[in-house]
Amino acid sequence: MSATTFSPATGGPTKDAKVAAALGRRRRRVAAAVKAACYAATAAGLLLLLSILVTLFWNGFSAISLNVFTTVTKPPGSGGGLLNPIIGSLIQTAIGTAIGTPIGLLVGTYLAEYAKNSPLANAVRFVSDILLSAPSILIGLFVYQVLVVPFGGFSGWAGAAALAVIVIPIVVRTTEDMLRLLPDTLREAVIALGAPKWKMITLVCWRAAASGIMTGVLLAIARVAGETAPLLFTSLGNLNWSLSLSAPMSSLPITIFSYAGSPYEDWIALAWAGALIITLGVLGLNIIARLALRGRK
């Protein structure tokens, strides 16, 4: 249906008011239906998120106590806590992030500033995208074959290495995307002042893209903080207190996985407490980073 018709009197197209009005009503109905569907989908997503958070907070806060943060894991009914899983998660996540972030930052910078669309850059992007979408259990199996089997046992180092492999593609993608968003005129202005390219990248481009790069790092931390499958094949877990990275090391995700399916009420309560600690930890880290970046601006 068209709102214009050919008029023999004028020898050209003319507007049909009735047809135009009908088309306008149909467009408004379609727009209203699409808007209603968008509102409904948004409301459904928010309700699901709200239900998850309410359930987590309700069960998690009821299980939180000082004992959770000061006592190591113990057998059921012994009043155990989550001290060793918390410390183990912090150590492995920190080491994995410290290893993966510089590598991802440099690779992303190489792709955005040097390689551009070369065959090597396209190959690196392809591999990075595969790692980004690969199931984490495959990464755990890979690290198991590379670091666990040859060295004769599970260890915190292997767990940190598995988390680093997960961090790298996330930081690579966000770094490249953020640097590509910077206008070329910014780079040209710095080069015109006589600055070498490495100074242009480190002192100008990285600073201009700091907020986006930091967001990528936070996303990586948020993902690895709750990873269970890679750690099952690498650091395994440890019910006893241990800070040795050369031995099996406890972590919150593995403890939650083990406790949540147990028949013991106190272990299930500790699993809820551990899930709440991870959630609040990631949230707090995001808030602190945002405030720090805002202060720099």
TrEMBL record:
Q: How does it sit in the membrane?
A: Multi-pass membrane protein
Instruction: Please name the InterPro entries in this protein's record.
Output: MetI-like, MetI-like_sf, Phosphate_PstA, Phosphate_transprt_permease
Q: Which residues cross the membrane?
A: 36-58, 86-111, 123-148, 154-172, 204-225, 267-293
Where is this protein found?
Cell inner membrane; Cell membrane
Q: Does the keyword Metal-binding apply?
A: no
Q: Name one GO biological process term.
A: phosphate ion transmembrane transport
The GO terms this record gives for MF are: phosphate transmembrane transporter activity
Give UniProt keywords alphabetically. Answer: Cell membrane, Membrane, Phosphate transport, Transmembrane, Transmembrane helix, Transport
Family from the record: Belongs to the binding-protein-dependent transport system permease family. CysTW subfamily.
NCBIfam families in UniProt: 3a0107s02c (TIGR00974)
Q: What is this protein called?
A: Phosphate transport system permease protein PstA
